Please model this.
Amino acid sequence: MGPVTLLEMVRVALLGGALTLERTAGWSFMLSQPLVGSCLAGAFLSAGPEWELWALRVPIGVGAILQLILTDASLPAAQRQHDTATAGVVGTTVAMLGMSRLHEVSTVALGGALWVVIGVTVGLIAAVGGGWTLRFHRARSRVDLARAEHLASMGFAGAFELLYWGGIFRVFIVGALWAWAASLIGLTMLLVILPRLGELLTARRIGFVFAALIGAGLAAAYHAHVAGRKQALRWVALGATVALVLVVVLRRASP
Amino acid sequence: MSDARVRGIDLAVMTARSLHIQVLLTAERMQGLGFAFAILPALRRLYPPREQLAPALSRHMAYFATHPILSGFVIGATARLEERRANGEPIGDGEVDTFKRSLASPLAALGDPLFWVTLRPFAGLVGVLGIACLPVEGMVGADLRLLLCPLLTLLTYNAVALPFRLFGVARGYASADQPGGLLRSLRLVEWNQAISRAGAVGYGALIALVALSLDLGSIRWGVDGRSRVAALTPLVLGAVIGYAGLRRWPGRGVEVGLGVLAAAAVFAATV
Model:
């Protein structure tokens, strides 16, 4: 079981900071979507050549399920304040680092499903915790508002700009610290808890939870893309038909 | 009468700054501070003396709320209005504020459904569909899905959103005299309708691909119906709890996801 390297955690922190900034500041390039964050975390955390296949599968699995579950079609004002930006990063980091350190605990051959389930679980919990850090930033912004008004009334535009750049820096630091701390806490808890669950982790049980998460993801996607939209079922049927026809054609064409 | 003009470099800097419009978001002013930060290069150009800059900066810190992707249009159009005012046209503080609100409110009303409700989920869905559609390792060399799936999400979203961001300030500045025409020319309702349909088509494709991956005709499901039902149980359980939970508590995907996890863990313990 290798130690968590400083470089790994620095990468996680930088990624967490950048994604928090992307989501909070208003860049909105969608780098902060769970699928993107998970895959970026997977790419940054090289688990080594012996984990090549799972190092690809686990981030994609964690990212896809979190993407479906956390895709919320309601307006941001109507949502609870959760940090979905770093959820994928923290979930994937804990899953990847846990996988390379605890693989002997569960030798069940399920194509990495256990680590995907762990990653999704940690990601969902991290989304709740990340919401608290966002509240901290909002509270600080209220303090900055009074100071910004004072600076503007005096005509100190440069000082106001510095205050604003400071806000940008704070968002980055808060996101980086949160991603770093949440990953370390998650990994520590995993190292403590998972060995105690060794007997309970059977292939059927892991597969059951994994499939239930996929089902939840499909239900969430239904709410995001179909529910409450006019004539949506007609387009759903069209999409399903096209996909089925394409798969049949491609399977016949392949040797 | 002065001849102060906002320059191209100012519009470029305002475009870059508009990317950070939500940093100091507060319930009291929403994006007010971000708006002042973004329009500051134009104000500096138009009101060089500190005693003129101070009131201009202060009045742009007032309450301001629009969709962040479309904020550039309001910033550019307001900069044009400030330019006319600086050059002696009789435009009062109230008129500038009313103009900002009259443009910001419809852009928020049109932008929120398009970018948050429709395009963002659709972009994520395209990435997830990529996982199901792209070939896995062994078929055509290395598994590139780790790279391609997020790229699909980013490209889908930004193909629509990026032009609004990059050219918003310049278009707003150029079209400040016809705000109604500017709003119509963006065709936000049409975009929303088209992407909404594409999302439903994508969801249908996702359901079909998941159903195919279950391989219901395969012998590994067992010959008797009971084993098939048992294998489908967790998927249906998750879908039912997820559907009912989000129907009851919309906007709480995290809590519903954790609820599904807890329920699945309890059921799995009995397996």
